[in-house]
Specification:
Distance between the termini: 42 Å
Order of helices and strands: HHHHHHHHHEEHHHEHEHEHEHEHHHEEH
Number of strands: 9
Strand content: 5-15%
Strand order of the largest sheet: 2-7-6-1-5-3-4
Oligomer: single chain
Structural class: alpha/beta
Radius of gyration: 26 Å
Number of helices: 20
Amino acid sequence: MSPKNSRGWLAFVCWMWLFTPALLEGLSLRAGALWVAAAFLFWPLTLWRPALALAMAGLLALGAINIVHVGFFGNLADQLLLATALRTNWQEAQEFVGVLPWPWVACAVAWLVTGIFACRYVWRFASMSANASPVLRKLSWAGVVIWSVFLVFVLVKRYDFDEVIRKLKTIYPMHIVRAWTAQQQLTDSLFYTPQLPSAAPEAAQVDTLVVVIGESASAQRWSLLGYQGADTNGALAQLQGVQVARAMAHGLNTAAALPYLLTGMAAQDSVEHRAPSFLDIARQAGYKTFVVSNSRYHSAVEDFYGVTFRRAADVFLKAGNGEWDEVLTPHLQEALQDPAPRKLVVLHTYGSHFQVEERYPATAALFPDVYDNSLRYSSDLLTQWIQMVERGAGQGKTALLLYSSDHGVAMPPCADQYRTGSGLSSLQVPLLTWSNAALRERFPQLVPQFDMSEREQLERSNAALADISVAALGFPGVLTALTGPQGRQLTFHEHDWPALQKLDACSLQ
């Protein structure tokens, strides 16, 4: 082989290096074939220097992001990353930097440095350089021919842009283009009109329903669910009318997981089915609705749950921006004192969000472990809020409080600190219900019954929070009717719960 051809093939190998993040989701013959195919199909970019420069810069940046994302979630950057990035404000971004998986960051930096050297070699010996190999030039034009044939196929079939991207999504890095188009479609569809039930609500309705949406609380660290390292639930365990169970979250971050607590399904499925949230059902049933939030978000960007909250809230209040969750307490008191005969109050907490040591005051530091402290602080607040609801319900009035977390956290030894990430601990969350004596006596059918076995065994989805809510509002089964029984299956990434338990507990691989 001539020196020119040798340098040319080495340039192609360097080009292939820029596509190696495609292999991070798992090595197989198919993955290897798709890796080589991707490098070949995008090799024609070397025929035009400006396109090559842009391609190399994009591949370097995306490759580094993909490596870190795999360290967090076990998969390449996806729509959920884009959804999270679009809604994240500066304070949350700073918190995110503090919990980066630094071994993976080091891998990304090492890959990036190697990639820069690879790009320099490709630039010198690319198809349009004076040093280019004739064989590699032919390879470039072969790629052009394939793209041309594909273009003709697309035109004949009259595919739109979205269909074209779906066809190409397995070719790295088209996954990120597909993620972007999917996110744009979701954003464009957020303001749908929910499909509300036409029938009147059933006679059995709770007077006061309070729904507390937790953040990053893992069932593995609730003492009520068997954790023995610390008393993370405190007085909550002594309250009458409290029931708890393990439940499965359906995502590793808020963008993926929170919609299940509102509509019982993913955001995209909610849009496709025009699914109402339990807040929409409450307004349909004649309740006055209050939403008080302490989560952080970028107010200039719409997201699924922001739109869902505001669409159905008679009163929407941003009480804090990631402060300690006790900031919600006075607003709960105001809502409970409202003269409306029936009311729904939603408290959106910041819970045990990463940088967990900042999620509670110093006076709540009861244990050596910061995560245990945050859970105990949240549990003490739940105890206080339950007592407030019981007092505020009034004589003979019924009351129900529900709590679950959108997702759990990755924790040692799977992670170097408590943070968002893959792992069984991220998919197991607590589900709590409290009912007052009046509800238990008058409408026992509205009070969920959890088996004691559910404190140790995971048998239900945290989407049950939405189902329990709509049942208490007089519309049992209205959400499950939209998707059928499959909508509540205990699955994640096409694995059911027994199969997930057989995977690596940290990587879910």
